[in-house]
Specification:
Strand content: 5-15%
Number of domains: 4
Number of helices: 21
Largest sheet: 5 strands, antiparallel
Mean pLDDT: 77
Oligomer: single chain
Helix content: 55-70%
Length: 563
């Protein structure tokens, strides 16, 4: 794939090239890519690099929505970026300028089939939030229900599709020409990002995510999820319950005293652990801007455009890994990590094991104010990337998610200890997983299997009894096949005999060469000797051919089936 000469693309090539030159060859890039070095002994990048890290979010915001979303997506790639940069990008706030209300009216009328005045009794012209993909307005339905209406920016889909094409072209070019890009699977990473953002552009998917998460967290009375209004929701318009409250990051000290912050932090942390390690479906972007403290003292989770799903096998391993890290069981943590990840040819298991153990032990020695389980997981992933080890994206999403939860928990309760919360909630999570696995459906499956077993069991028992009565019962043992072995030995003996005969013919011919026979010669040599040499040569070739052909194709005969 060659780079396009389209003028719009050329500008994006320039923007990407400037970003790569400024941020791509420094301590911000993982050592897995061969660029720079990141201290693995707890050190931090130098002050100049730290200043660059803090500048990157502003650069991405200036370049537009696709770059902002790319930054948020890359904050899940701990094998590519330094932990400090992951932490910076995890706090990347998605803010943008407002677009005109006239555009809102046109989009709603086109998408919902009626003008705003017919659908809503009230609709605020000034938005309550404006992000790179959409704008949110407060409204009231005809029945009096207060809602938030999320409207996609006009033309944003086309802009993002063009940017994605540029990203994919540049990634493909770098994969072909730069070893570091191939090791980091840059083209595949951009492909994952493309899939994620395309899903986020479909607001119907977000509405389904709201319903699923609300159902999964229905037992958490201190957590609220807005319900969508399906009849007023399309791919570009999402209508849902209005959440009245303030972002966790903007809670005043006096307001914090009015709520039970420790209980809210504990419940929120436990809810996320359940989402990740029991449900396998979780809100993957709980940055402080997406978590609200409502006026009635509950926690609200909004903006479910980015969610993640985890397989049951990975859920079990993640639960065990998180508990092992929180309890300082370094050896077990290494074992779970190796089971979760995938080795590359460059993988150095000894180095990886040593660094992971150092991280886990350092985490155990940390004081309460320094504990951050999410950061530990991100550092483990970064170390893995430097050692030539690859993890599934779900593990990086978990690290980023827990990193944000660490901050939110401390905003609600400054002395919140996520390490203790994990150890305290671990047994409950195991019980929940067990109840989920022993579900009604799984019991039905067991009953069906048992029914089939009991239906066929009498017939099999009858066959066994008949075989015993007729003295025909046989037991096959997977051991040496004597017949096969004897055939092989016989073949070896035959070939040795033929070889000896051919050797004797050659020796005889050599002796006959000394006997002068002027009346019968071939090429000036005694004829009998030359004939014997010819017979030996033909016999040797036939023997070699038989060895090459028959031995290569010979297969073991199938055994008689057992009863």
């Amino acid at each position: 794939m060659s780079l396009s000469l389209n003028p719009d693309y050329l500008k994006r090539y320039k923007d990407l090239a400037r970003l790569l030159l400024k941020y791509g060859r420094s301590e911000m890039i993982s050592a897995a890519g061969g660029e720079g070095q990141v201290s693995r002994n707890g050190g931090s990048p130098n002050p100049k690099t730290m200043r660059k890290m803090k500048e990157l979010p502003r650069e991405l915001e200036r370049l537009g929505p696709t770059f902002v979303k790319l930054g948020q997506f890359l904050s899940t790639r701990s094998d590519m970026l330094a932990p400090e940069l992951i932490e910076t990008l995890s706090r990347l706030q998605d803010k943008a300028e407002e677009f005109p209300f006239e555009s809102i009216e046109q989009i709603i009328a086109f998408e919902l089939g009626s003008p705003i005045s017919e659908l809503f009794s009230e609709f605020d012209r000034i938005p309550i939030a404006a992000a790179s993909l959409a704008q949110v307005h407060r409204a009231v339905l005809r029945g009096g229900r207060q809602v938030a209406v999320k409207v996609q920016r006009p033309g944003i889909t086309g802009q993002i599709v063009r940017d994605l094409e540029v990203f994919l072209e540049v990634a493909s070019f770098l994969d072909r020409h730069i070893d570091a890009a191939r090791r980091l699977m840059l083209h595949a990473t951009i492909g994952e990002f493309r899939s994620a953002i395309i899903k986020e552009l479909d607001f119907r998917q977000e509405a389904r995510n709201l319903v699923t998460l609300a159902e999964n967290l229905k037992d958490y009375t201190s957590i609220v999820i807005p319900s969508p209004v399906n009849e007023l929701t399309t791919s570009k318009v999402l209508t849902m319950d209005l959440i009245v409250g303030r972002k966790v990051t903007s809670i005043a000290p006096l307001r914090r005293l009015e709520v039970n912050g420790a209980h809210l932090a504990e419940e929120l942390f436990r809810a996320y652990l359940q989402q990740i390690m029991v449900d396998g479906f979780y809100h993957a972007d709980p940055h402080p801007g997406n978590v609200f403290l409502t006026d009635d003292g509950r926690i609200a989770l909004i903006d479910l455009g980015m969610v993640a799903r985890i397989s049951e096998g990975l859920q079990r391993l993640l639960l065990r890994l998180t508990l092992a890290i929180s309890e300082g069981r370094a050896e077990e943590a290494v074992g779970y990590l190796v089971e979760i990840g995938e080795k590359t040819p460059e993988f150095d298991e000894a180095e990886f094991s040593r660094h992971v153990k150092e991280l886990v032990l350092r985490y155990q020695r940390a004081t309460l104010g320094q504990i951050a389980v999410g950061r530990v997981i991100l550092e483990v992933l970064h170390t893995a990337g430097a050692s030539g080890f690859r993890f599934p994206a779900e593990l990086a999403m978990l690290g980023k998610c827990l990193l944000n939860l660490d901050e939110i928990g401390r905003r609600l309760a400054p002395d919140f200890d996520p390490n203790s919360a994990i150890r305290r909630d671990g047994p409950k999570l195991f019980r929940q997983r067990l109840r989920k696995e022993i579900s009604v459906v799984s019991l039905y499956e067991m009953l069906i299997d048992s029914k089939e077993l009991f239906e066929t069991l009498p017939r099999h028992i009858g066959k066994i009894a008949d075989s015993l009565a007729d003295n025909q019962f046989r037991v096959n043992v997977d051991a040496i096949d004597e017949k096969y072995l004897m055939t092989g030995l016989q073949k070896i003996a035959n070939r040795l005999t033929v070889g000896l005969i051919l050797g004797a013919v050659i020796i005889g011919a050599a002796l006959l060469m000394q006997v002068q026979t002027p009346h019968f010669t071939i090429f000036g040599y005694p004829g009998i000797a030359i004939i014997f040499f010819f017979i030996a040569a033909v016999g040797g070739l036939l023997l070699a051919g038989a060895i090459l052909l028959s031995d290569e194709r010979m297969k073991k005969k199938p055994r008689n089936p057992s009863i």
